[in-house]
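Quick start: read one record
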Amino acid sequence: MMMTTMIAALSLAAQSPAQQAVAKNGGDAATQPAPEKKICRDVMVTGSIMPGRRICRTAKEWQATDQANGDAFEAARYSRNRSWTKSPGLD
């Protein structure tokens, strides 16, 4: 019994990580969804003399980030334009 357990443990250790994942999940590696591709961007840091940072995210994460940045820009632009149109004492 102990010898059988040892042989099974050694055969699992000899498998590649991909084979172990297939054996563990009970499925074919081709049916597993591929991880999303990462897109990297160089981002400048305001107020720093260092060159910047490289940030890697998926396409969905970049889309959400760009949407949030656009919303923040529009809110700042709207509040700035609105403050210029106010006349003093008419609040």
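The first strand starts at residue 38 and ends at 43.
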